[in-house]
Amino acid sequence: DSTPLSRAASRHPKHNKGGRRVIHVSGYEGKTVTVPCPYYAGFESYEKYLCRSDCRQDADVLVKSTEATKGRYSTSDDRRKLIFMTTISNLSSKDEGRYWCGVTKVGFDKYPSEVSLKIELCCINSTHYCNCTPTVQSLYSQIKHMRKLY
Predict the structure, then answer these.
(1) Residues β-bridged to residue 51
(2) Where does the Immunoglobulin V-set domain lie (predicted)?
(3) Are 13 and 77 in contact (CB under 8 A)?
(4) Which pLDDT tens digits describe the chain residue by residue (150 residues)?
(5) How would DSSP label each residue in 13-27?
């Protein structure tokens, strides 16, 4: 059994930089965005999570695959496609930044992906047409491309 400090230290992304790719995701303030976290075959039954900052503290973990919903975060794990998805609702500019997709394992956790989330203003009350829906197809294209690089 690990203490919170040693567990957090084993969670730090610096311990596993190999093979990690950056996923670029954008969302609109006040809307929702889905963050895809692809992982490797063999980790289907492992706990996955999304964390913020440098993931050194347990408080940096936003949500785990064992939690269907936690505050503004909801999760799903497609074990056939090997993608852990986290949906973040009611986005604000504070949500912009770097995230890590993690897989909990004995020793050092795995970090198959880094996520860069950009928050944009949706043009409400505009006289011209604005599309404020994130492009899900581009996310899947990124994941497909990343899998080829593995």
Answers:
(1) 61, 100
(2) 25-118
(3) no
(4) 333 333 344 455 554 444 567 899 999 999 999 999 999 999 999 999 999 977 888 889 999 999 999 999 999 999 999 999 999 999 999 999 999 999 998 888 888 789 999 998 876 555 555 566 655 545 556 566 555 554
(5) GGG--TT-EEEEEEE
Indicate the burial class of 93 (C-beta count within 10 angstroms; 0-12, 13-18, 19 or more). exposed
All structural domains of the chain, each given as residue ranges with its CATH number in brackets, are: 4-136 (2.60.40.10)
How far CA 20 is from CA of 5, 6, 37, 80, 117, in Å, comes to 24, 23, 11, 21, 16
Amino acid in position 44:
E
First to last CA, the chain: 32
